Amino acid sequence: MLKEIIANMLLVLNLENANVQLVDEKDLCVMIANNDQDIVRACEAESIDKRGWGPLGLTIGRNAYVADHLNYYKLINQSVIFHELVHIKQQDESVIYTCIGHKEKDAYERQYDWLLVNGYEHSFEDMLKELGINMLAYKLNIACGMF
User: Which candidate, 43, 83, 102, 89, places its Cα nearest to that of 62?
Assistant: First the structure.
């Protein structure tokens, strides 16, 4: 089932040579930490499993890494894969983002549009909430320090 969903997403985004890999939440967190030892220690702490605050996805080059603990039968969790594939699509486009927050904003908006096309009937804010993203943190992120 997941292979077919990913194949459909690749068609929708007109993407070639993109890979999706399911990875353990702690491993994903360590990848995001990028050698920051304080973050690595937090990622490796046992509490990450209990608190559920780990990351959901990461894109490196043409590879999208997504958390393996998500139930991918749920549309909202499938959209995490779409979000990461959008980042690969962004690499192919000639858009210059002034900061990473603008790139994230674009990816979340495309993710939400994909959800709507696929039957999601909730607000953008509801999407963020379901994904465990705090609205204030989101707004600060996309503001790129311009507040």
Answer: 89
